[in-house]
Every structure is written in structure tokens, then in C-alpha cells.
Amino acid sequence: MSHYKLNDADEHFLNVPQGGALISAGASGTETWIERDRDMVVRIAVHTVAVATAEAGSVEVCIEIGGDRARGQDGPAPVETTLRASQSVQVLVKAGERLAFKAYPNASHAMVLRTVVWAADLKYDRAPEAPARGAPEHPAAAGAAATTTNQRQAASPGRAA
Length: 161
Prior knowledge:
By secondary structure, the protein is mainly beta.
């Protein structure tokens, strides 16, 4: 049986950025909640690295908040290709309210090596208490904005004996 390990590029991809807080690291993701003492825009992100174990291997990451889902994926790819997928969302967490979410990978013909979930508070300039009629809302207050990154490394997945 082959044993795969993360290489330096994988570790770099999985790094939590400066200002971010690690929520979960492992293979399966997490189901948790966050809370803030004042209104805050928070970026929640999930990154995963996997290896295709058969032809057309792929990996998907998903962040679920309420009934909404944001997804990112990599693949399909040839056997033994390193797969990397990430997804992030920006949400307004209201003061004193818990925001429950799930962040996890789904692999198809692939083995997940590691999944990292993190969150970071973003600068939030609170809108005036009574905005002018017809004025646009703060972009983060209007809903979640999602970004996706898909990266594939076609070469050796970093085999160890």
C-alpha cells in the first residue's frame, strides 16, 4: 500500500494566514459555531489537499451556513495527482449571536491528506444607523460573498515508503 505525505507546497497551501485563527485541522473538517461581542465581518475558509487514488479522482470542499452552501473543487485528475481545493465565505456575524456552520471535504476516488478550517475577523465599518432611502447596504451585510481557489499539482504526490 502506498503512503502519501504532504510536501512543502501542500503545507504552504494549508497555512493559516496572518490574523487568522485555526478552527480545525485533520482529514474530516468540522461542524461548529462562532460568536462575536460586536458586529463583525468574518472570513471562514476551508482548504484541503488530497491524492487521486484512481483515474478521475477529485476533491471538493464545502462550507454550509444555514441552508446555503459554497463549494470549491479540484479534479477530475489522473491517478496519483495531488489535488488542492479551497473555499472561503465572508459573513456578517451579529453581536452576541452564534453563527453555526460546517466546513468539510468530499473526496471521490481520492484520499484526503489534510483539511484545515480557519476564520479571520475583517475590518468592518459599520453603516450609519439610518441609511438614506435607496442607499446600498454594506456588501457583507447583504449576504455572504464566496471565493474559490482550485489548484492542481500534476507530478509526484510525495510518496513515502
